[in-house]
Amino acid sequence: MSGGTATRSDPPATRLLWAGRGLALLGIILVAINLRTAVTAVSAIVTQISADVALSDVALGTIGMLPPLMLAAGGLVGPVLTRWISLETGLVISLVVMVAGHLMRAGADTFPVLLVSSIVAMLGMGVGNVLLPALVKKYFPDRIAVMTSIYAMLFSVSTAIPGAVSPMVADAAGWRTALLLWGVVAAVAVPPWLALLLRSRRVSSTEEAGNDAVVGGPTRAGLWRSRTAWGLLLMYGLSSLNGYAMLAWLPEILRDTAGVTAVDAGILLSGYAVTAGPLALIVPAIALRMSNPGVLSYVGAVTFIAGYLGLMLCPEFLTPLWVLTAALGTGLFPVMLALINARTRTPAMTASLSGFVQGQGALVSVAGPPVVGILRDWTGSWTAPFVFLIVTAAGIALSGILLRSPRLVDDELAELTGRDERRRAMSVSAGQSR
User: Fold this and answer.
1) Is the domain of 109 the same as that of 166?
2) 288 lies in which domain range?
3) How far, in Å, CA of 119 to CA of 108, rounded?
4) Do residue 408 and residue 353 come from a single domain?
5) Residue 314 φ/ψ, nearest 5 degrees
6) pLDDT band at 95, cuts 50/70/90?
7) Does residue 9 carry a pLDDT above 70?
8) CA atoms of 6 and 81, how far apart (whole Å)
């Protein structure tokens, strides 16, 4: 294949996962462990915090809205950082910001301080979230599937651990110590990346110019015109919208429609949440081996819808099956992470695409829980919320249509830029002929 018509970059030579890059492997693992702790560290010990810091329902709701908003902010900030500094420097900065946010939260004595510190911690999380796929592209271009599986699975671990550990630490040593703990955990992730930053050599001036052309040129504006970028955005945004809505409302849905106890509803919610972990170990490799990974969008949409229909039409029959079926749709998150790497040629483009997809997708996902709640309040039943979720799940299939062509985003943008230049040249020529 030649020039801008290529659809796939040449596969890199495969080597042992840890060969010459054990420090990068350790660094990626440690970062992945920290990229969700800021979200659940507070929610698990709200009762203990409320004893010292006045937290109204509005205050708790505001903090609850921060994760997707800060993921979106990270989607904007991360790619901008890569225009001026290296990926490693950007990640170190994001970790330091995360540590600072955790420490500030541990010392908060008023809600405004708790809010600002939560914003700081989650902004660091959002930037790291965007840069991690680009670092995988840089250090493990031959092991994208396995590395994506590792860190996507660790995202689930990072989400679950604070919920179990924070209450125990808070009971034993106070909630401030519980929040301080996650600052220490984040600080542990800094040394490997500092070492990699100090060890790395400057890229040649030619390579720098090439990367700058990608990030500073058509990337930011051009991604809005890329079919692949839009396909990944729809896959991530709509699947996350459905996932967040179910995590927020599933226990109440099950109590109202299936008549399950609060304990059983909690168990089923846990089952829904942990399903993403095993899926993360499997689906990236499947996606990267498929000539048309867009098919997985159809599968994800069907599983979401099948689960919802089961919960709507016969909630008391095979309830765990319907919950598990709907949960399978959340496997599209690691698919998206894998395709961000597979559909880009350079780490710089990977960072830009990651920022675009995860930033805009996070904003889409924000709508899930509140819209479901509003529809429930307005109608007094779960039918309208389920119809909303079915419609949004069906929208995921659109991403399959957009992703069916195995084009690299780099080539799409180059083609669009070339087309724009030809149009400008024709316009200038026509003007001169007059």
Assistant:
1) yes
2) 207-426
3) 13
4) yes
5) -145, 65
6) very high
7) no
8) 29
pTM over 0.70: yes
Torsion angle of C-alpha atoms 415, 416, 422, 423, degrees rounded to 10 = 160
397: CATH: 1.20.1250.20
29 and 119 inside one domain: yes
Map tokens 């679950």 to a residue.
Answer: 160
Torsion of Cα atoms, 415 then 420 then 421 then 423, to 10°: 130
Asked if residue 330 and residue 221 are part of one domain, the reply reads yes
Q: Nearest to residue 162, comparing CAs of 281, 46, 52?
A: 46
Same domain, 195 and 212: no
Residue 327 — very low, low, confident or very high, per pLDDT cuts 50/70/90? very high
Q: How far is CA 272 from the centre of its chain?
A: 18
Residues 239, 394: Cα–Cα separation, whole Å: 10
Q: Both 263 and 369 in a single domain?
A: yes
Which residues make Cβ contacts (< 8 Å) with residue 193, sequence separation at least 6? 27, 31, 88, 91, 92, 95
72 shares a domain with 40: yes
Residues 221 and 195 in one domain: no
Q: What is the mean pLDDT of the chain?
A: 83
Q: Report the domain count for the chain.
A: 2
339 and 144 Cβ atoms separated by less than 8 Å: no
**pLDDT tens-digit map of 159-178:** 778 877 888 888 888 889 99
